[in-house]
Automatic annotation (TrEMBL):
Domain of life where this protein originates: Bacteria
Occurrences of domain HTH asnC-type (ranges): 2-63
SMART domains: HTH_ASNC
Record flagged with keyword Transcription regulation: yes
Protein name, UniProt field: Lrp/AsnC family transcriptional regulator
Keywords associated with the record: DNA-binding, Transcription, Transcription regulation
InterPro entries given in the database record: AsnC-type_HTH_dom, Dimeric_a/b-barrel, Tscrpt_reg_AsnC-like, Tscrpt_reg_AsnC/Lrp_C, WH-like_DNA-bd_sf, WH_DNA-bd_sf
Record flagged with keyword DNA-binding: yes
SUPFAM superfamilies named among the record's database cross-references: Dimeric alpha+beta barrel (SSF54909), Winged helix' DNA-binding domain (SSF46785)
């Protein structure tokens, strides 16, 4: 179970994953070794699953962000596995979820331009034998950046 210090540590690391044990200790009123041991325990117990840098898509030339809903033609295990392999193989697809409702999958994609998004949809997704229908939405503006999880 998490105590109040653990949740404060997790919140601090979500805001800045580069915090040292010394800095965490100062923030949490712990010694650096205590803060470091808590961090290691939270990593070992799977509360912290990794660390990553957030990149600016515009600076990388990825000017189109979109969400793509995919409906499969059939829902057997082989079709699902084949589609999952396709999703994992495409760098433009940055996240994917299985969904309830009309669409089977929701994909978040980043592309250099509309032509690249068109290619992804028509030549990659729609040409896959498991896919029956695709519906896309282009992001006009992101009102809230991907936020830390509530702790």
């Amino acid at each position: 179970m998490l105590d109040a210090t653990d949740t404060r540590l997790l919140a601090a690391l979500q805001a800045n994953a580069h915090l040292t044990a010394q800095e965490l200790g100062e923030m949490l009123n712990l010694s650096p070794s205590q803060a470091g041991r808590r961090r290691q325990r939270l990593e070992a117990e799977g509360f912290i699953t990794g660390y990553a840098a957030r990149l600016d898509p515009e600076r990388l030339g990825l000017s189109v962000q979109g969400f793509v809903q995919v409906q499969l033609a059939t829902h057997g295990p082989e079709q699902s596995k084949a589609f999952a392999r396709l999703v994992r193989s495409r760098a433009e697809i940055t996240s994917a979820w299985t969904m309830t409702g009309e669409a089977d999958y929701l994909l978040r994609v980043y592309c250099a331009n509309l032509g690249a998004l068109n290619t992804l949809i028509h030549e990659v997704l729609l040409s896959h034998p498991s896919v029956a229908r695709v519906q896309s939405q282009i992001v006009m503006d992101q009102l809230k950046q991907d936020a830390p999880l509530p702790t």
